[in-house]
Every structure is written in C-alpha cells, then in structure tokens.
Amino acid sequence: MQNEVKQILHRHFGKRSELISILQKIQQEHGYLPLEAMQDTASKLKIPDSAVFAVATFYSQFRFKPCGEKLIKICLGTACHVRGADRFLDNLKKELGIEEGETTPDGKYTLESVACIGCCALSPCLTVNEEVVANITSPKLRKLIVKK
Q1: Environment class of residue 111 by beta-carbon count within 10 Å: exposed (0-12), middle (13-18) or buried (19+)?
Q2: pLDDT digits over 87-112, tens only?
Q3: Which CATH superfamily is domain 70-144 in?
C-alpha cells in the first residue's frame, strides 16, 4: 500500500492546494483513506496531520474504513422519498442486518443513504457501485442482495 501512496504523492508538486486531489486518488486506489496514507500526505505537503484530517472529515466523499464489494447508496431525495425510499432503506437494513454507514460482516455490502443522485425521473432509485438501479421495487431489492 505504501508504495502506491508514494507514487500518487510523487506525481504532485507538494502544494497544499493539491490536498483534495491527492486524497481522492488515494481513495480511488484503496477504496478508503488509510491512516498511514493521510499521515504520508501531511508529511509530503509539509502540513500538520490535523489539516489533512480536517479536510478529509469535512467532505462526505471520503471514507476511513474499507467498504463492501457492493456499495449501495439509496437516494432519499424528495422524489425518491415520496415514492417510498425510506421503506426500501428500512428493508435493506433489515435484510442486510446493518445500519447506514456499516458493512456486512462478510464484507459484501456497505449501505449508505444520500440526499440525491440526480435521477429523480427514475425514482425511487439507488446506486450499486455507481450503477443506477431505477424504479426500485421489493422484488428488485431482493434480487440485488441475493446471498450467495
């Protein structure tokens, strides 16, 4: 892991203005921001660790734990909410045995809710690893989380 982080940091000029871009690339590579990678970033940019943590915790796009093989993000925006997204979220939580922001013990699923994914005409909807699943129904949810 450390080698990949060093390669990412090497491609940058060590400017604080590159912090978000660096963190995005680290997360893209690893699926989350490992503690050591954030510390290496702070060292490379010659800023305190706390400055890196402040930025990383401010933006909801960053995660600090690995997520499951399937990252499910259910939309709770107005159109989805009106069409029952809350009920589908509750069903997913019950079926997977986890709460929002958690990963199943087998590492297969991570469940999150988001304010809007921009597919209001397809509501209710969710994404699985960035792929949109439109017009959610209970049978679609069951197929989505088939335990194998």
Answers
A1: buried
A2: 999 999 999 999 999 999 999 999 99
A3: Glutaredoxin (3.40.30.10)
